[in-house]
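BUG: 3D viewer hangs when loading the predicted structure for this chain

Environment: internal workstation, default settings.
Expected: structure renders.
Actual: progress bar stalls at 90%.

Input used:
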Amino acid sequence: MVIFLSDTHLGSPHSDAGHAAERRVTAFLRSLPAEVKHIYLLGDILDYWFEYRTVAPRGFVRFFGELARLTDSGVRVTWITGNHDIWLFDYLEGELGVEIVDEPYIIREIYGKRFLLGHGDRIGRRPASFRLLSRFFRNRICQKLFAAVHPGLTVRLAHKWSSSSRTSDTGPTSQDIARITADAAALSAEHPKVDYIVEGHHHITLDTKAGNARLMVLGDWNGSGWYASFDGAELRLREVNHD
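Structure tokens produced before the viewer hung:
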């Protein structure tokens, strides 16, 4: 079995108080059956993370410990970066054995089916302002300059930015859903052999046809928590509290 999840936003000022959100996600991972062989984390798993060369940011100990337990037991973990956890470099790869991918999407064959997997923020035509910010955040010189600023300031800035974006976010409209589906249909036309497109980012659950592919948008973990599972025969969108 293969598991897909996204948008847990651990460490967010909007998440459950204290370590409750981290405990929920960790408990879910710990409860996965032995049949699970690969876990795909499709971005925004952490609400903010900046990886320094010699210092690990505070927090997420339980979650990282569970990832280490999984990889040590032979479970593969692939983490595709989102727009909140852009700055994952080589720490988690070296320490936990997690595969880190910073690409708009990847195509993987899983049990004979072709999956197109991505966070979703870089799928389809994006506004010019978003494309500019994405290039800025991924620019190596800008990253080095950001690393020179004391973390006490950058963490506060990141959380303030996250708070303002959540306050202004009213959720996807019917036009947004139509655009998400159309973007996936365009990808399906570009990659006609893809059977499934799985993404996160939009904080909705969606299971629909998009071109020749089936589109599945994973929900977030602001409530009970959503994920998808694939056993080689069926791709299922599942809610944690209802399993």
